[in-house]
Write a structure and sequence with these properties.
By secondary structure, the chain is α+β, with helices and mostly antiparallel strands. 59% of the residues lie in helices and 12% in strands. A 5-stranded mixed beta sheet has the order 1-2-3-4-5, with helices on both faces.
Length: 362
Amino acid sequence: MANLPAISEDYTGIRAEIVALLQAARAASARTVNALMTATYWEIGRRIAEFEQRGEQRAEYGEQLIEELARDLTRQFGRGFGRANLWQMRAFYRAWPDQNILQTPSGESGIQQLSSRFPLPWSAYVRLLSVKRPEARSFYETEALRSGWSIRQLNRQIESQFYERIALSKNKAAMLKKAESAQPDDAVTPEEAIKDPFVLEFLDLKDEYSESDLEEALIRHLTDFLLELGDDFAFLGRQRRLRIDDAWFRIDLLFFHRRLRCLVIVDLKAGRFNYADAGQMHLYLNYAREHWMKPDENPPVGLILCAEKGVAEAHYALDNLSNKVLAAEYQTILPDEKLIAEELKRSRSRIEERFLIASGEH
């Protein structure tokens, strides 16, 4: 085989041009999808609101409409059209009832025209909806457009009460100028924008959760281990998604314990256990108790697994239970924390050894 000629020095230039082209195309694709999605959701909200106005002026009427739509649209289009999302679309229309927008024709051409009226991504409008004062919401929207804030910048400014602070400031121009500057973690890459859960739902695409190979393998091993402890654990799923307000979370493993008649939420952490892990678990438990628990079931229990290198810990979250008798029963029936921690440590060692052998470092 003849030797291939050496790649010229011009290769670096052409590679940089192609990378820039692909990045620009991905960014444009994300903007286009977001604009169409936002316009579509506004139009859905408009139709819901106008249908309600033609019907009975009762709260129950709107709730029944949303309930039926959520059931039918979810059956036909999959995720993204549950009750909470439809209420959000209705609220979006009511918060932005622009008279010029109302003159836009319906159908595909109407959606295309509408898309130019909403320059921010849908996730930004969802975040803005959480701002209750209209004047504050208008301020954040204006500044997000003027300064080109990413959703992370917008979220940070709202959480820091930027509107209230600037109202009290004697140097408003300086504050506005400073707010234009982005922090290192504010940027949203085209890949992140396209993989936004809102976009994935709108396009009905599978939501792939990015994890390290080690964490993936540990979760698989721990699933098998818990199922092998007996027939009490019934596996319900992994990487179960949930949304609280405008934030997305994923639960690593979800089981149902047959004897305790309760859900068991398992969360794997790469580092040591800390209070933030406990707080997040209690967030999951409260959500599960409100949205996933059946009437005849006991409150859910959480299992936090910490798999820091050389250390393994397991902690049950039981203080959300309604009484101490129930908590004592849980502690009697659930597997011992030390047993699970030891298995976690063994699993990590075996998996790391296999990775070393596969990579030729052993």
